[in-house]
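ARCHIVE CARD
Drawer: 12
Card no.: 0347
Subject: one protein chain, sequence and derived structure
Cross-reference: see card 0346
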Amino acid sequence: MGSEERQHSMAYAYAGVAVLFWATSASAFKLSLRHVGVLPLLLSASVTSTAIFFFYLAASGKWRLLRAFTKRDYLWSAGLGLLNPFLYYLILFKAYSLLPAQEAQPINFVWPLTLVLLSIPLLGQHIRFASILAILLSFSGVVVIATHPSRPADILDFRFSSGTGVLLALGSTVIWALFWIYNTRDRRDAAVRLAVNFLFASAYILVAMLVFSRTQMVHWKGLLGGVYIGAFEMGVTFLCWLKALKTAKTTAHVVNLIYLVPFLSLIVIRLVVGEDILPSTIVGLVLIVAGIVLQKVLDA
């Protein structure tokens, strides 16, 4: 096997590890929230991922890149850290506390289309009629998942497991899309900026806990869940994904693997969380992914 083939294989290996870990995230969120509140869970996850990022910087020799940070760089990281992980996961965890995992996870997956919509006013991009149809296709999937109809006519009744949960899951896609739009303007090393972003976010979460949370013992299962989320939804997995994108010949070779995440996630949710996966969830997820793939084809 030549060096180019090895590099290609390594890119898929890193991406595959990231996809497998992300497929467990929804179940980890749901199980952890049974034992701990949103803010304590987010704090343990953020602190864990921050430690992983800084350990990586020290091990890879990228620690020295922090010396080049200006006051403006730190302020930019403070703003990005406010978006992600602070606001994004705060909203997402709350959505998971209100919705079945099989609903929250696919709804959150529409963020690429939210990114397209926000790129119109923020980046001055134009949208074609075909793209609008792709977005409507995906959002029809959201409606199907959220209303879980037993027959097509039931969709019009708009009966949600939790209307607030659906709005929060959709709202998290706005925060995530905003984070990546503003992230495109950041030319610093990705691992370094993530480390600083998460450091600021951990401080925000700690302050929020001190202000809004009652002092109480945190169940060890909730704490362990936070450590798992921090390591395998955020820290290690983000680094694996960055490595996959960097080593791939083209990002398209690995980005397409992302579409496996929601389907694999449903399997894990069924086996680990014990939720009965509804036919409407599968139909809605297919519609969501079809819309995203169509949008990607139109952008090609």
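Annotation on reverse: The radius of gyration is 19 Å. The chain has a mean pLDDT of 89.
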